[in-house]
Design brief:
The protein has 457 residues and is an alpha/beta fold. The chain has helices at 6-17, 23-29, 34-47, 62-75, 79-85, 91-104, 115-120, 140-163, 171-181, 187-194, 198-210, 215-227, 234-243, 250-259, 337-348, 370-378, 395-409, 417-433, 445-454, and strands spanning 298-301, 304-308, 311-320, 325-332, 358-361, 382-385. Helix content is 49%, strand content 8%. Strands 1, 2, 3, 4, 5 and 6 form a six-stranded mixed sheet that branches. It is elongated, with a radius of gyration of 41 Å. This is IS3 family transposase. Residues 117-138 are annotated as: Disordered. Residues 125-138 have a biased composition (Basic and acidic residues).
């Protein structure tokens, strides 16, 4: 332990009293301990410069100790304050006197009293008839105290049995029981019955009173998840929260969604097509480069099938790889060439003069027909095809079909093809206008295209 001279003590106390800095700043500037400086200040205020004089070991008598404890009780002083007031060498001596007096009375303050022997002495055996104390010899207060403890334990056990059949409750559940019974029984009895430490009780009490700090954030996450009908995972939920002005980490959103059991839909396994012989086809001009620098530069298309009550419905869309927007689509109950023809007509109507996109598809029979190839040639559109049986060459379109069926078809029950057709119209509008994409900076395809068009060149 560092020993400080009276000069050091006086200099530190004087600097603090002049307002040169706070307690910690002054202690750091004079290279002394914060607790030591606090004790010197209290001693100086009580006894002046004499309170800073190094104190020698002193044996205090009973009357002095009783006077110290009486003054501390009457004035409501702390151990540090009363030690400074009576110029006592160690403030922990006051705390020890207080403990001894509360446990054993004034006799324990006599010099030479063997407190350690008394504290460590073995209690009398319950089976020793010569030393046992009968209930008749016990005071009325002791008997009432034991009765009160038994009543508290009985009330606690009844609450535990009513709350749960499990063997052991957690600290939070036991704290809630203690809080419920606290108006009727002393806290010490309830903590003893609950086998709960006082520090644990107050820790749990603070946590209960604080409440859920993320209640508002959870409500916003649930609202976004429900509004999009469970189609959003934690990444899209995070992106939408940030659009609302909330600064939140995606890991926090993921953790809260797990706690609330909000899980986005899982995509089905990919289908592996038959790798057979190929007929007359067009070359693969995309080569799995599904990015575009401007609108109407690269398109992809395909046909997917839905089954509703032994009836089939077919969807044929065209997607722009610039922003993953569905630029046109056609829905039919039979996959006839007229479905592809109508889809192309709607798509070509969106082209400006001079725009000649690449239209990529698989090697389906619809795209190998002479009428289809001729239509593309007349419009100046370059045809591109995937390799036979390789769905990865048209991964962008396959990904859209997977998202569509996962978020719409597999999530809902459709009784007729008409209800499914109406739902497909609504979903494609939702996909283009409302549904945000992480790859587009948290914007929907239409919003991304509009923003890019409005940006200065």
């Amino acid at each position: 332990m560092t020993r400080y001279t009276e000069k050091q003590k006086f200099a530190a106390v004087t600097a603090y009293r002049k307002g040169a800095g706070g307690l910690r700043a002054t202690a750091s500037a004079h290279d002394v301990g914060v607790d030591s400086l606090r004790a010197w200040i209290a001693a100086y205020e009580a006894n002046g410069k004499a309170g800073l004089v190094a104190k020698r070991r002193v044996i205090y008598d009973l009357n002095f100790k009783l006077e110290v404890l009486r003054r501390m009780q009457d004035k409501g002083l702390s151990c540090r304050q009363v030690a400074a007031l009576f110029n006592i060498r160690r403030l922990d001596l006051v705390a020890e006197w207080s403990r001894l007096y509360a446990a054993h009375g004034a006799a324990a303050l006599q010099p030479g009293w063997k407190w350690e022997q008394t504290r460590m002495s073995k209690p009398p055996s319950r089976h020793d008839d010569r030393e046992a104390v009968t209930n008749d010899q016990r005071s009325r207060e002791e008997l009432l105290r034991d009765l009160q403890q038994l009543r508290a334990e009985n009330a606690y056990l009844k609450k535990v049995q009513a709350l749960s059949n499990q063997v052991a409750l957690g600290a939070r559940e036991r704290t809630l029981i203690v809080l419920e019974l606290r108006p009727h029984f002393p806290l010490a009895d309830l903590l003893r019955a609950a086998e709960l430490a006082r520090s644990s009780f107050y820790y749990q009490l603070k946590a209960i009173r604080t409440g859920d700090k993320r209640c508002d954030l959870k409500a916003k996450i649930r609202e976004i998840f429900n509004r999009h009908k469970g189609r959003y995972g934690y990444r899209r939920v995070t992106a939408e929260l940030r659009q609302q002005g909330l600064v939140v980490n995606h890991k926090t959103v993921q953790k809260l969604m797990v706690e609330m059991q909000l899980k986005s839909l899982v995509r089905p396994k990919r289908y592996k097509a038959y790798d057979g012989a190929a007929s007359e086809t067009a070359p693969d001009r995309l080569e799995r480069d599904f990015t575009a620098d401007e609108p109407n530069q690269k398109w992809v298309t395909d046909v997917t099938e839905f089954k509703v009550n032994n009836q089939k419905l077919y969807l044929s869309p065209v997607m722009d790889l610039y922003n993953r927007e569905i630029v046109s689509y056609e829905i039919a109950e039979r996959p006839l060439p007229v479905m592809i023809k109508n889809m192309l007509t709607k798509a070509f109507n969106r082209l400006d003069s001079g725009q000649r996109p690449i239209l990529h598809s698989d090697q389906g029979w619809q795209y190998r027909m002479p009428a289809y190839r001729q239509r593309l040639h007349q419009s100046g559109v370059v045809q591109s095809m995937s390799r036979k049986g390789n769905c990865y060459d048209n991964a962008a379109m396959e990904s859209f079909f997977g998202t569509l069926k996962c978020e719409l078809f597999h999530l809902n029950k459709f009784d007729t093809t008409e209800t499914l057709k109406a739902a497909l119209h609504d979903y494609i509008r939702y996909y283009n206008v409302d549904r945000i994409k992480i790859g587009l900076g948290g914007l929907s395809p239409v919003a991304y295209r509009t923003q890019a068009a409005a940006a200065p060149a």
